[in-house]
């Protein structure tokens, strides 16, 4: 039963660095540009103690609402008892990575624009748009052709040791 309730209590595995990922920070943290409205994921880096968010926000995705020279302001929704509230806090850029949550949406937008350009001469009813996300569809059927099948030796002729 834990008796410490400090800022980093119960973060032994949450803040642990990966295999061969220890040591100094790479330059990729400092070369990433963040703009207002970007989706970011809070990924706490335990190498840097400054500007570290609380462990509750680790793994959460939010939007950038403020950019400063060394940090970004992130807005995240958080459930507090029975209600959901918006939390705004500043995090140093070492603890933030760009999120890939909109990647699928942007790919669908490109696909829809491509289909619209190809089918612009067709009536509106025949233009198919992929608005919703689709689950993984079943693979198409195929026939497997087996050639040069080796005959199976009957068991009575097989010698046992």
UniProtKB/TrEMBL annotation:
PROSITE patterns hit by this protein: RIBOSOMAL_L21E
SUPFAM superfamilies, alphabetized: Translation proteins SH3-like domain
Record GO biological process: translation
GO cellular component assignments: ribonucleoprotein complex; ribosome
UniProt keyword list: Ribonucleoprotein, Ribosomal protein
Short name of one Pfam family: Ribosomal_L21e
GO molecular function: structural constituent of ribosome
Origin: domain of life: Eukaryota
Family annotation (PANTHER family): 60S RIBOSOMAL PROTEIN L21
Family of the protein in this entry: Belongs to the eukaryotic ribosomal protein eL21 family.
UniProt name for this protein: 60S ribosomal protein L21
The species this protein was found in: Naegleria gruberi (Amoeba)
